[in-house]
Amino acid sequence: MGKEEIFNALKKELSAFSPLLEVTKDLESNYELYGTKSVTVGKKTVDKMYFASAIIQKNFVGFYFFPIYTHRQEFNDTPQELQKCLKGKSCFHIKKNDEQLIQQIRDILKKGKEVYQKAGWI
Prior knowledge:
Elements: H1 3-15, E1 22-26, E2 30-34, E3 39-41, E4 44-46, E5 50-56, E6 61-65, H2 67-70, H3 80-83, E7 86-87, E8 91-94, H4 99-119
């Protein structure tokens, strides 16, 4: 499986949230979603809170998922297969277009949307 197929699978999952979230990048190798509300976190206010993106990198497709960083405790039950792909705090290195992995990503995207809605960020 090429990186383009992985990217397209991730983009399909992310784009399902585009009616609710704002697409800020829609390129051949980079698809990015942000919330639509001004958000204050601590003492900092941002116009829109970053949600998630997919970016083709040199050796993998990066799935960047910010809710796992902002609300870590909500994602303690992330499946082991997906957890193994997590490098750093919010970046998953996806190297294969595996339906089980894509389903797990679909599930955490739904949970992330719910967490952001509950926080009033979208």
